[in-house]
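Example record

The entry below shows one chain as it appears in the dataset: sequence first, then structure tokens.
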Amino acid sequence: MTLLTSLLAGLLFGLGLAISGMIDPARVTGFLDLAGAWDPSLGFVMGGALLVFMPGYFL
């Protein structure tokens, strides 16, 4: 059962990354390039994921 749960969690995580466009290396590089053309979209995706995760974690 834990193997199935882990598989579903990984698939959901990968699907979320694909839908949000965070599998594009240029977008990740843009987020890490603070001195150049900084792209904050990865930070918004991480923040949204934390908003979904935190209520379940604390319950």
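Notes for this example: The mean pLDDT is 88. The chain is about 75% helix and 0% strand.
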